[in-house]
Amino acid sequence: MLRIGSTLRASRRLLNRQLHFQCPIVAGDSAIAGIAPVLYRRFIPFNYSSCFGNISASTSFFSTLSSNSSIFNAPNTERAEENDSVESNLSVAGDAGVALSEVERVAPRLSDGILDAYLAIELALDSVVKIFTVSSSPNYFLPWQNKSQRETTGSGFVIPGKRILTNAHVVADHTFVLVRKHGSPTKYRATVQAVGHECDLAILVVESEEFWEGMNSLELGDVPFLQEAVSVVGYPQGGDNISVTKGVVSRVEPTQYVHGASQLLAIQIDAAINPGNSGGPAIMGDKVAGVAFQNLSGAENIGYIIPVPVIKHFIAGVEERGEYAGFCSLGLSCQPTENAQIREYFQMQSKMTGVLVSRINPLSDASRVLKKDDIILSFDGVPIASDGTVPFRNRERISFDHLVSMKKPNETAELKVLRNGEVHDFKITLHPLQPLVPVHQFDKLPSYFIFAGLVFIPLTQPFLHEYGEEWYNTSPRRLCERALRELPKKPGEQFIILSQVLMDDINAGYERLAELQVKKVNGVDVLNLKHLRQLVEDGNQKNVRFDLDDERVIVLNYESARIATSRILKRHRIPHAMSIDLTDEQNAAELQSACSI
């Protein structure tokens, strides 16, 4: 910890505002190299110049701090004087320069925290970039329209292979992406190579060779231990230049990823992570310990970073398959077995531990071998405690879901299961599972089908989010409950609803049937929206009958409804009666060509 007095205030004449980081500086009058604990301390922004020409930033920085006494006796100044001349900077510093040995001599005199933050800056200067994104999200109430475009910024860093790693939410629903490296006024066009919204990670590529000149990649490290120091580097709000904040690791455990609504391993730190920091690296030593991605609202200095195991799982999946494949799931809902009576009921011996299977996804491979009321004792040979946790590192425990999520798609897992008092060994193939009602719909247009002014859509959580921040309370209660709890029974199944009625003479009287599930068309169970469109346009019957939830019925004359559809589309300025994903290949090509004109 450094003490601040007249020496430091004078030396600030040499510093500019091109780069800054916050570090604890204690008030006092001793020399800058003095390190002593005091009771009062405050945060002072350190600013140093990178305009020393070919002289390295580390040499310049430490040269300033360790130069002769004439500098430290200079008058106080409130802000740095910027000077782009190498000679003038060296003349202010004293002699013609300081050798690297001088830097090595001065470095140990700095506190460890300040030195770690400085080293993080050195690594980040040629690796961390600022990302400028223009995005436009769909309007789920009017799925044929997009909302107004908006501009956001974020951070990213270079990884091996001339790629940039950032957060998925930085480029979600993007229409245009630019990146800018530190010290350059030029922005370069970037394209999104792969994006994983569940793990909130994305990979960008830049074709310009000029951009890669002087850029260095950062190496991925390991999961840090508790109380280890990390430095978060990025471009947060409040300024345009690079920033570094320092913190320590508070906990490591599976956490809710807000963007993808998934439960994956995350690291909590006490460094501030603000808008714009997203996608920047958290550096520990000379390697990346994680990627900054979210904070805890309503709390101070509680931020979260994505750990290296999740990052490597994402990158490996992209490299092996060419695209993001997702994270695996067992497709189970489990209950702890901590109560003595429930353990006795299911014939668990005194030393047995495990979790009770209460629900199984019909589309998972687990439904083939597991049954309700099975007790899962271990996963891949790792014993599962009665609270559902497994050992993790040194005397730490995390949910056994972490072991499942780290498996690659189509890998097998060995489960030891207690059933009716007998122990069985099963092998289950793991793969990503999709819910009946999708949690997110980033980077894709919503599906819709309009017939006689009736707007049919598959229910998604983004549709419910259109009801506002309190969507759980303001959206239709029945739809909300089923969206959160219902499981698919068949592959490709969707939850189809009548979202609204565009009023016309042909549908008068049906307007109150909006927001109900569509179960059947002409007596046939509806599998998904594409199936509904096929049933409607079959044309074998004079009338089309829709069976809705609550035993409600809609009947339309097919020919009259078909003619009315064109009239209604023209009245509401809707370009097409269906989304492009519902058309056949030939019609889709024609529609895509028409949209691009």
Automatic annotation (TrEMBL):
Residues covered by the PDZ domain: 339-430
GO MF, any single term: serine-type peptidase activity
SUPFAM superfamilies: PDZ domain-like, Trypsin-like serine proteases
One GO BP annotation of this record: proteolysis
Domain Protease Do-like PDZ: 437-581
Domain of life: Eukaryota
Lineage: Eukaryota, Viridiplantae, Streptophyta, Embryophyta, Tracheophyta
Name of the protein this chain belongs to: Protease Do-like 10, mitochondrial
Sequence similarity: Belongs to the peptidase S1C family.
Record-linked InterPro entries: DEGP_PDZ, DEGP_PDZ_sf, PDZ, PDZ_sf, Peptidase_S1_PA, Peptidase_S1_PA_chymotrypsin, Peptidase_S1C
Keywords: Hydrolase, Protease, Serine protease
